[in-house]
Amino acid sequence: MSDLAAQVGAVLARTVLPSVIARGGAIRVAAAGDGVVTLEVSGSPGAVFPLASRIEAAIRAAVPQVTAVRLVTPGAGPSQAPAGAAADLAEAARQALDAEVNPAIAAHRGHVTVTGTDHGWIRIRLDGGCQGCSLAEVTIRQGIEPLLRARLPAMTGLTDTTDHEAGTDPFFSPEKR
Questions:
Q1: How many domains does the chain have?
Q2: Which of 21, 61, 136, 153 is most deeply buried (CB count within 10 A of its CB)?
Q3: Which domain range does residue 94 map to?
Q4: Is 79 inside a domain boundary?
């Protein structure tokens, strides 16, 4: 392991790794060189991707020679998916959400939308009563994610892109936690 990789590994261990593990994920240094660090993430995508900016900031502050941080999944690469696969995955996710999830969360004034896909990762946004809801993470990890995994074998993971702080009328307010 290079000196740069060891330094980054030490930063991860003392800053974000406990939080990532507690949320059901794992992260390791896959490569480090020329100022670029590639971190391989596995487990629940909700354990790492919401912390991506915090992870990069911690690494860059502690190891000044790092100029960029990339997050990848095991085996991810641009040649993995055939052309059109991302669009097909996004459309399949939209159909599953519209048919099975949105009717259920409509009772809470909520709606979920696919905002994009990347290498098998599906990005979603929660709107209405789900935006800022104190149970949004539970809905995603125990409801939406398992359903999409069962329906979409090409899915690598699920990322919530919702700005929960901007929610104006959450079904369960943060005070109800």
A1: 2
A2: 136
A3: 85-176
A4: no
Distances (CA, A) of 115 to 39, 72, 155, 177: 24, 19, 15, 27
For residue 43, the tally of other CB atoms under 10 A from its CB is: 15
Segment 98-154, tens digit of pLDDT: 988 888 888 888 999 999 998 889 999 999 999 988 888 888 988 898 889 888 888
Using the CB atoms, write b or e for 11-42: b if 16+ within 10 Å.
bbeebbbeebeebebebebeebeeeebbbbbe
Q: Which helix (H) or strand (E) holds 125?
A: strand 121-128
DSSP 8-state secondary structure symbol assigned to residue 113: E
Residues 23 and 93 in one domain: no
d(C-alpha 164, C-alpha 170), whole Å? 9
Encoded tokens for 19? 């939080």
DSSP codes joined into one string, 88-105? HHHHHHHHHIIIIIHHHH
- The answer as to whether 162 is a domain residue is yes
**Contact by Cβ (8 Å): 37, 69:** yes
